[in-house]
Every structure is written in structure tokens, then in C-alpha cells.
Write a structure and sequence with these properties.
elongated, about 375 residues, mainly beta
């Protein structure tokens, strides 16, 4: 059943790509004869290549790892959840190529954006207990007895988290601006296909000793004599791998209007755009976690007269991989400024893309989480041909 669903999904994706391509080519053929270009238009580049980057702020909606065993973590220490978060930022790389035939208002484009980030943290918090000091009289003189601590209360958090994302677009659009924002303005509506792939990996290890203290006994004239320390050791680990793959139709509107300059030679323009898509794909989440709690007695306090370790709790869960077919709405937009020349352009601005309910961020059970990328960007475009 699963295999037939996968085959059907692949067929649907190819049909979607074929349909969009056919519509774009048909539109170009129908309008090629009617398109008229001025002498200035005949000099414009027919191919634009764009490279850029974006500093993206990432959404972090995944459920934090907080097993009940760690509830005894001393309140003097910061909670481990503060250090478990996925990377908060990513430096994305992007590239695109667009083609506008001579004497045509049609534009065909392909673009890709990729980002990856890694976060490694090791935070150890601990106390510094003082030595146990006792004075006693041995019948002749006073003596000082000191027992130095062999351990301390501590909380240790070790995390290795990573995130990656890829967004690709294939579009066919038409400039319908007709100079509505000025002589050299553009307003392009495009229809196409968007593909998105997201993935995260979390590797978290927690250790703590919440209650280490000296254990002592009274021995006649010696008073209280420390025999060692008693304590618990708590251990917990989480391994989580989550992903989303989806594809679907997309619609976008990109516009540009000059605000100063000398026409086609060079000018400063205001750019903006909106995009929307519906992605059909699959969420996947693979989770494994384990916790162990142990109690350690002091020397001479165990059943054999020596320190003794006893496991008081243990859990281990290798949860079944959760796979779910989902529909993910996507909206986004950008605004910025560009310095345009006859065959080059430099752009700066701010862009945002939000994918609703794209990832399964839960641990024990499924929990839908949004995925978002937003931040400043910079692009360099070069025109060829014309």
C-alpha cells in the first residue's frame, strides 16, 4: 500500500511539472507574435544570473527534552532547556537564472536557496563544597580532622544540534506592469512549482548529581566522623531526526519601480514581492531516548561496608518512526532597494518565508510546528545577451 502511494505521488509530481511547463510554453507561443519591443528593449539582456545570501533567523518550535528524572536538578542551576535549542540563525546561499526572450514580456526562471547551521554546546554547572572539618581531643591534645569532598552537586548539558533547508522554484511569468509604476518599472506575475526540503538532528545528553553531601557517624570522643558522600546520579539522552519533503504549485508577484536615476543607464529602484504556495509532502520523525537514575551510598554505609551503587530507575524508548502525509501552506514576501545598471544590479532588503505545520516537533507524540526563515539579504545580478 505504501509503495503504491509513493508511486502515485511521484506521478502526480511529474504531471504537475509537465503541466506548468506546457502552460508556460503555450503562453509564450501565443504571445510571441503580439509582443512589440522598443529599440531600448532590444538592447536589454535576455539572461540574468543572480547570486546572493541571506542571514536568516530560524523558528525553533521543537519540544524541549525534559524527562521527569531531571526534575530534581538543583534550582541553583539554570535549566537544561536553555541550552537544548536548535541553531537560531543560518547563512543561506541562493542562486537563480532567468530568461526573457527578445520582443517578449514572458520571463522563465529557476532559483534555489540552501542553508545549513550547526550548534554545539557543553555547559557544566557545579558547586564547590568545603572540606568537612572536625576537632577532637585524644586525651592529650586537640586535633583537627579534615575530610575533603570527592564529588559535588552538578548539572551537565551536552548538545549537538543541526538544521538544513533547501527551497527550489521553477516559474514562468509575464510582465504586466505596462509602466504603471513608471517608465522603467516592472510587475511580473509568475506561476510555477516549488520544492522544499527541511531537516533537523538533535543529539542531547544530560547528567546531574542533585544531592551530593557528606555522610557522617558519631564515634565517641571523635564526634562526627565523615565516612564519605552519598549521592544520586541522573543520566538522560535524546536522539531525534526530523524531516519534511514537499512539492506543489506556487504563485508570485515581483515588482520594481525606479525612484531616482537617469533611465536605463543607471537608477535606484524600490523592489518588492509576494509569494504563496501549497506543498504536498511527508513529515518524518525518528526519536530515541533513555534515562537512568542511580543511588550511591557512602563508604561503610553499604551492605558490604563499601560504597554501593543501586539503579533506582531506568527507561528506554525507541519510538516507532512517525511518517505522515501533510499539506503545507507557504507564504512569503520581500522588500528592498536595488542599484540598477544596463547589465548589472545590486540588491539589498529583507525577506521572509513561512511554512505552516511543516515539521513534527514532538517527542512522545506528533506535534506540528511551523518553519520560518526571515532576515536581511543581498544579491548581485549580471545580465548576458541582448
Amino acid at each position: 500500500m505504501s509503495e503504491s502511494m509513493n508511486i502515485g505521488r511521484k506521478n502526480f509530481q511529474w504531471q504537475l511539472l509537465t503541466t506548468v511547463s506546457a502552460l508556460a510554453l503555450l503562453g509564450a507561443a501565443c504571445n510571441a507574435g503580439d509582443a512589440k519591443a522598443s529599440d531600448a528593449d532590444s538592447d536589454r539582456p535576455t539572461v540574468w544570473i543572480e547570486l546572493g545570501g541571506q542571514l536568516s533567523r530560524l523558528n525553533d518550535g521543537e519540544e524541549t527534552f525534559s524527562p521527569a528524572l531531571m526534575a530534581g536538578r538543583p534550582s541553583i542551576f539554570a535549566p537544561s532547556q536553555n541550552f537544548e535549542k536548535l541553531p537560531q540563525t543560518s547563512i543561506d546561499e541562493s542562486g537563480s537564472i532567468s530568461f526573457q526572450p527578445d520582443n517578449s514580456n514572458w520571463v522563465f526562471s529557476a532559483s534555489i536557496r540552501y542553508g545549513r547551521s550547526v550548534s554545539n554546546k557543553h555547559v557544566r554547572q557545579q558547586t564547590n563544597p568545603q572540606a568537612f572539618v572536625q576537632y577532637y581531643f585524644n586525651g592529650f591534645s586537640n586535633h583537627r580532622y579534615a575530610k575533603y569532598p570527592s564529588a559535588s552537586k552538578f548539572a551537565d548539558t551536552l548538545t549537538h544540534n543541526s538544521e538544513h533547508h533547501l527551497i527550489a522554484d521553477f516559474q514562468a511569468g509575464k510582465d504586466v506592469g505596462l509602466g504603471m509604476f513608471g517608465k522603467e518599472s516592472t510587475s511580473v506575475f509568475s506561476l510555477g512549482v516549488r520544492f522544499a526540503q527541511f531537516g533537523t538532528n538533535a543529539n542531547i545528553t544530560l547528567r546531574s548529581d542533585p544531592d551530593w553531601h557528606f555522610y557522617s557517624r558519631s564515634l565517641g570522643n571523635f564526634g562526627k566522623v565523615p565516612l564519605g558522600g552519598t549521592y544520586h546520579t541522573h543520566y538522560a539522552m535524546l536522539r531525534a531526526s526530523r524531516s519534511f519533503h514537499g512539492i506543489g504549485p506556487s504563485l508570485s508577484w515581483n515588482a520594481s519601480a525606479p525612484i531616482m536615476g537617469n533611465g536605463r543607464d543607471s537608477d535606484l529602484a524600490l523592489d518588492w514581492g509576494l509569494n504563496a504556495a501549497i506543498l504536498f509532502g511527508r513529515q518524518r520523525a525518528k526519536i530515541h531516548y533513555q534515562t537512568t537514575g542511580s543511588y550511591h551510598t557512602a563508604k561503610y554505609n553499604g551492605p558490604t561496608g563499601n560504597p554501593n551503587r543501586k539503579v533506582v530507575s531506568h527507561t528506554s524508548a525507541n519510538l516507532p518512526t512517525r511518517v505522515r502525509t501533510v499539506v503545507v501552506p507557504n507564504i512569503g514576501g520581500f522588500a528592498g532597494l536595488s542599484f540598477r545598471y544596463s547589465n548589472a544590479k545590486v540588491s539589498f532588503g529583507y525577506r521572509a518565508d513561512l511554512f505552516f505545520h511543516a515539521m513534527d516537533g514532538g517527542i512522545e507524540t506528533r506535534k506540528s510546528e511551523d518553519v520560518g526563515f526571515y532576515g536581511p539579504f543581498a544579491n548581485l545580478s549580471i545580465g548576458i545577451g541582448g
